[in-house]
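Review the following:
>
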Amino acid sequence: MSSAFTLLVSYRDFVARGSLTEAEKAQTRLRHYFVSQAPEVQPYLSDTIYDDWPTPFNNPRGSKTFAAWLVLVALASLFLGTATAAAVHGLSQVSSVVTLIVSIAVAASTGAGLAAVLMRLARRQARLDRPMYPTPRPTHDDEQDIDRPDSTPTV
């Protein structure tokens, strides 16, 4: 029962984080629109106007949110393995070693399967989450202007 509850909480959190990411990106796109219409407001904005920052969906390895989801998956697997061990031990007269092996196998296979499903969902969300206004990268001409010293001497 606790493993099912943990999985439901994980799924609810995943969906909520997806909605939050969409809302944040919408706000960023609005800020970008305001700056494109009136560039003089940019110094007064406290957040970015580009929507290509890392999220748990497009950068799972660098995300603490994604790590928390993996911890919840591990807990759900552990709960299921423990419940399986209790059921095997209670229903049959097998040794403790067999019970331990069965519970570890159930927990490991469940954890691996759920982690794969989580990665698949994150990849699918990342494909839907394409930036509309990526951060501009410096061009080759911009780099030359920065590296070239000013020809006028300063006094």
About this structure: The chain has a mean pLDDT of 82. The radius of gyration is 25 Å.
